[in-house]
Amino acid sequence: MAFAAAVVESIDRMKLVRLFRAWFGLPPSRRRQWLGFLRDLLWTRVVYARRLKACGRGVIVQKPLFWTPEFIELGQSVHLWPGSRFEGVDSYGDQMFAPCLRIGDRTSFQQNCHVTFAGSLEIGAGCAIMFGALITDVDHCYADIEVRVLAQPILIGTTRIGRNCFIGAGAKIQAGTVLGDHCIVGANAVVRGHFPDHCVIAGVPARILKLRDPETGRWETPDPKKDATA
């Protein structure tokens, strides 16, 4: 028993030494950043978790520009960088909605993102959403030319993002868009529609540039002539 206790103590001591060396091996700016993460982790657990609809372990929420936490469910190890807007629309004029945003484990939103939802908007685990991206399930009606657009009803289009997707900086994921797993969206792309697993999407409007062949495992460029005749 004494020998086992000594082994455990030596292992713990080794871990502490490695941690100490790693910490002081970081530049001062990184040390300040990690201290800020620790502060925000504690603030999230003590303050924000009570306001969120659901909050997993290891979540870091850095001060949003605006949000409606009562409509948001966060999985484990989610990181929301500062300055973003996460707004659930529960009413609009005479319309009433039941908004819910579900963000999967280990997904991160960088700064200045904009997410607006009036229905159930789902973002899968392991996604990375770069700065300035927009994701929404809301469309504004515009048919009545005698009424300003913001005074007309809104429509909900089911929006869903699969697991392990990468959304480039400034990309716009519009209402009614469904992305499969491991989709890569280029910076500033304007995306609407349904896209399969394992594809690269870019452009205005966005289209598939590459698609993984499940048989060969290669990422290939789709044949536009074949798509046109399909």
Walk me through what this model shows.
The protein is an alpha/beta fold and 230 residues long. It has a single domain, classed as UDP N-Acetylglucosamine Acyltransferase, domain 1, CATH 2.160.10. The protein has three helices and 26 strands. It has helices at 2-25, 28-51, 224-229, and strands at 54-55, 60-61, 66-67, 72-74, 79-80, 85-88, 91-92, 95-96, 100-103, 108-109, 114-117, 120-123, 128-129, 134-136, 138-140, 154-156, 160-161, 166-167, 172-173, 178-179, 184-185, 190-191, 194-195, 199-203, 206-212, 219-220. The strands form five sheets. A nine-stranded mixed β-sheet has the order 2-5-10-13-18-21-24-25-26. Strands 1-4-9-12-17-20-23 form a seven-stranded parallel β-sheet, with helices on one face. Strands 3-6-11-14-19-22 form a six-stranded parallel β-sheet, with no helix packed on it. The longest helix has 24 residues, at 2-25. It is globular. The chain starts with a helix and ends with a helix. Residues 2-11 have low confidence and may be disordered.
